[in-house]
């Protein structure tokens, strides 16, 4: 009996569901067809314009990317690099493929799978993929490789060059210098602060530039703005020892605020959100890094500016070069000059920043671009 | 849950141990969800904790196989859902259902074809090397799963929920990597030293919950979970220390020495010019499987382990030291997990990163469950999961099916194994523990 009951109920359920699906179906039948037609029309239109823009049919070129354990939806590093890949797909009409690595053990198999399916340019996102990309580049001399945010190194971590491997690096100290100058000019307590996620070169380079910017302001104006959290000489400072533990960001933020700092630059990805949460309601302002914090975080009203690292355009640029047959193993280094790094707009603080300071920042930016001023950092690429 | 959680407590009544094998089993089978409560109790409570364990250990092979089949079918449904063409055709499913079914079939079959090509045999590859490479990749991925899975299985047989394989792998990896790059010893000797070091590192991390449980009655589930977190933070810290941090990045240790890595398993004269990653770590996994079989089925310690797992009170009454068995079991489990770490660190050009343990420690629990905590079963389950992993990589890159599907399949397998009545209900299998029902089930089947 029970069997029949179940059968009856499920039959009824199917009928109900079918009825539900029926009603919109009449409409979607026609609209979907037109949609499809429209889609196809759009697509062909797009393709044509792409082809003319890129000056040829690139659909036989395949660019591929492998993430580290963060995945392409990490709202940070991997995602930024991946936006370059999808950008290249749109602008060049190339084929793309991507694979997320859930663990370090998957780097090599993922790269191998990409090479096997005929990728012409394989990009690894992050320092952790260095070894795997290096091995694959040596084993597959006919394929070109790219590596974001790290150079190639031998077993003793001495830098080496690989004929078919291109490092994509960023000299963020240039933009961080401007941020430091700005912070020193904007502080009311004469104390600014910074801290990092882990003591690694790609983090410390922000802190070096920031420190130099503060020093330059002090020299220009005879001021005595103090930087907490980083000693450039000793290469020593405050670290959250994490890129995801926001409570660390909160406690570091509290420390700095109690010591009197009113502008803080966290160089630790999402950890900075912890700092933002304790800064809320105080007069403390933040300087965000990597992405534009005004747009990517919910603390836009606290964010004075952001030190931007344009990973997407850099990746897209490297792909474009390779598509055009101009691949070189020379590292791409993002600078203020090639707009690989930059300082974001001030948004809510646009009026609060004095024109004099803005002029000074523009002047320094020009000096750095022209090479008149070199921001020195032991962590520079 | 009604009983206070007091490990080492005396039996509440004499008959609890006596009638428990029949009663507990049937009650577990009747109430499938009871599995969720079992994890909270320690194995010393004969009525809940070890009962679910015993059920898992005592379940039959058919259920395991059917669980895999159901999981793959469900995975297929998800693949179809995730596919863009299927999503398009579903909007006019009633106008032209054929489109929908064709698209679904294509999506699912393409994905599973890629899974097969990536896991067993790549029939589309150009060279023989490339054709057989996938099976070697599967074995490479399986090695840590088998070793850590064996560690979990030994714990299960002793009635211990060892959730700490993750931490044991990490600590084993730290020791193995340090011995690997800090010293330079002759061939063979260096490798053996590193393997031994890795096993000892894992064993130490297993010893801590073991001794805490034996001496103070601390719940091994909680202690091992906490030790996992300690290990995660420990490795992050260790990687920033002097010798480990030669790169100055705090993310990767130096490479291990030239003699510290497992040599490739398949020699060049057998398959010329091969670049297989499969190494002698797989042989270690085979040896470990044989060792665990001998340990559990043939040795005195194994008898005590099984006795303590089946009924600690009876074991104590029989004069066995349950505390000693607990410590020993955890040390062996940790040692096996430490060996799993060596298969990751001790490879050519290998080095230590914070991700050394990946999710092997947790996948190993699934492997041990699927393998019914038997050595051979765990070995085969490890191979299956290794194949999923290897195939999932290709599936992801060729058909852009998210590799997460593989995790869903693995998780569904665990879910089904924890609830055998569900599997029996789906396939209308008779319940072996309830003879009276058998007749009814048969008539039902005939009627339907």
What does it look like?
The complex is a heterodimer of chains A (381) and B (448). Chain A has 381 residues and is of the alpha/beta class. Among the domains of chain A are: 62-170, 3-Layer(aba) Sandwich (Rossmann fold); 173-309 and 351-370, Rossmann fold (3-Layer(aba) Sandwich), CATH 3.40.50. In chain A, 47% of the residues lie in helices and 18% in strands. Chain A has helices at 2-54, 77-92, 107-116, 130-139, 173-186, 201-221, 246-258, 271-279, 293-296, 311-323, 355-370; strands at 62-66, 95-99, 121-125, 144-148, 152-153, 159-160, 165-170, 191-196, 226-228, 230-231, 236-237, 263-267, 285-290, 303-309, 332-334, 341-343. The radius of gyration of chain A is 25 Å and the shape is globular. By secondary structure, chain B is mainly alpha-helical. Chain B folds into two domains: 52-119 and 401-448, no CATH class; 126-398, ABC transporter involved in vitamin B12 uptake, BtuC, CATH 1.10.3470.
Per DSSP, the total helix count of chain B is 19
Give the CATH topology of the domain at 173-309 and 351-370 in chain A.
Rossmann fold
**Strand composition percent of chain A:** 15-25%
Helix content of chain B: 55-70%
The string of secondary-structure elements of chain B, in order, is: HHHHHHHHHHHHHHHHHHH
Tell me, what is the CATH class of the largest domain in chain B? Mainly Alpha
- Major sheet of chain A: size, sense and barrel closure? 6 strands, parallel
Secondary structure tally: strands of chain A: 16
């Amino acid at each position: 009996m029970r069997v029949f009951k179940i059968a009856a109920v499920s039959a009824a359920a199917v009928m109900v569901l079918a009825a539900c699906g029926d009603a919109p179906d009449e409409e979607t039948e026609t609209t979907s067809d037109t949609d499809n037609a429209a889609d196809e029309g759009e697509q062909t239109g797009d393709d044509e314009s792409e082809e003319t823009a890129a000056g040829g049919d690139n659909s036989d070129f395949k660019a591929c990317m492998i993430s580290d354990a963060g995945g392409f939806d990490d709202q940070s590093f991997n995602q930024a690099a991946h936006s370059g890949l999808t950008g290249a797909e749109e602008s060049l009409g190339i084929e793309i493929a991507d694979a997320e690595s859930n663990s370090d053990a998957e780097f090599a198999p993922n790269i191998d799978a990409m090479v096997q399916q005929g990728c012409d340019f394989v990009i690894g996102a992050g320092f952790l993929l260095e070894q795997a990309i290096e091995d694959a580049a040596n084993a597959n001399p006919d394929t070109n490789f790219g590596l974001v945010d790290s150079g190639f190194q031998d077993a003793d971590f001495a830098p080496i060059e690989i004929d078919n491997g291109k490092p994509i690096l960023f000299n963020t100290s240039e933009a961080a210098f401007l941020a430091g100058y700005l912070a020193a000019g904007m502080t009311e307590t004469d104390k600014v602060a910074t801290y990092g996620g882990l003591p690694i070169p790609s983090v410390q380079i922000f802190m070096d530039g920031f420190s130099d910017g503060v020093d330059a302001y002090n020299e220009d104006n005879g001021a005595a703005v103090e930087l907490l959290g980083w000693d450039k000489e000793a290469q020593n400072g405050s670290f959250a020892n994490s890129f995801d533990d926001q409570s660390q960001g909160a406690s570091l933020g509290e420390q700095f605020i109690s010591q009197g700092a009113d502008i803080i630059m966290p160089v630790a990805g999402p950890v900075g959100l912890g700092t933002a949460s304790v800064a809320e309601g105080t007069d403390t302002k933040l300087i965000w890094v990597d992405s534009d914090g005004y747009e990517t975080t919910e603390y836009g009203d606290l964010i004075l500016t952001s030190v931007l690292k344009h990973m997407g355009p850099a990746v897209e640029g490297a792909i474009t070069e390779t598509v055009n047959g101009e691949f070189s193993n020379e590292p791409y280094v993002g600078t203020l000059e090639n707009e690989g790094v930059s300082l974001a707009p001030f948004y809510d603080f646009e009026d609060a920043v004095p024109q004099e300071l803005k002029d000074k920042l523009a002047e320094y930016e020009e000096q750095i671009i022209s090479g008149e001023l070199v921001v020195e950092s032991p962590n520079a690429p | 849950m009604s009983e206070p959680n007091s490990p080492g407590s005396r039996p509440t009544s004499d008959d609890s141990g006596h009638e428990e094998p029949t009663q507990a089993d049937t009650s577990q089978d009747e109430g499938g969800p009871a599995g969720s409560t079992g994890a909270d109790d320690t194995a010393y409570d004969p009525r809940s904790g070890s009962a679910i364990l015993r059920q898992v250990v005592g379940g039959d092979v058919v259920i395991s196989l059917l669980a895999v089949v159901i999981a793959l079918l469900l995975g297929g449904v998800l693949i179809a859902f995730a596919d863009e063409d299927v999503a398009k055709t579903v909007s006019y499913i009633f106008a032209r259902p054929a489109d929908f079914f064709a698209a679904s079939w294509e999506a699912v079959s393409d994905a599973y074809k890629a899974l097969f090509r990536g896991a067993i045999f790549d029939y589309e590859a150009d060279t023989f090397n490339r054709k057989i490479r996938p099976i070697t990749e599967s074995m490479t991925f399986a090695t840590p799963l088998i070793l850590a899975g064996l560690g979990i299985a030994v714990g299960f047989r002793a009635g211990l929920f060892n959730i700490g394989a993750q931490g044991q792998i990490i600590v084993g990896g730290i020791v193995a990597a340090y011995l690997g790059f800090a010293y330079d010893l002759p061939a063979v000797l260096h490798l053996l030293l590193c393997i031994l070091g890795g096993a000892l590192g894992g064993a130490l991390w297993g010893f801590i919950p073991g001794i805490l449980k034996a001496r103070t009655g601390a719940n091994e589930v909680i202690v091992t979970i906490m030790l996992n977190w300690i290990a995660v933070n420990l490795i992050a810290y260790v990687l920033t220390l002097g010798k480990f941090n030669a790169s100055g990045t705090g993310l990767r240790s130096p490479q291990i020495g030239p003699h510290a890595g497992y040599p490739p398993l398949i020699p060049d004269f057998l398959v010329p010019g091969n670049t297989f990653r499969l190494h002698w770590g797989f042989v270690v996994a085979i040896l470990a499987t044989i060792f665990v079989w001998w340990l559990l089925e043939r040795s005195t310690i194994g008898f005590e382990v099984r006795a303590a797992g089946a009924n600690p009170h009876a074991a104590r009454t029989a004069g066995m030291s349950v505390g000693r068995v607990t410590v020993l079991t955890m040390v062996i489990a940790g040692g096996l997990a430490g060996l799993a770490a060596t298969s990751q660190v001790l490879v050519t050009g290998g080095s230590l990163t914070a991700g050394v343990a990946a999710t092997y420690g947790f996948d190993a629990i699934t492997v041990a469950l699927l393998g019914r905590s038997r050595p051979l079963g765990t070995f085969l389950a490890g191979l299956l999961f290794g194949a999923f992993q290897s195939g999932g990589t290709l599936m992801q890159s060729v058909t852009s099916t998210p590799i997460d599907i593989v995790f869903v399949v693995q998780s569904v397998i665990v879910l089904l194994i924890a609830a055998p009545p569900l599997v029996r209900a789906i396939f209308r299998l008779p319940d072996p523990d309830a003879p009276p029902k058998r007749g009814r089930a048969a008539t039902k089947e005939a009627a339907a």
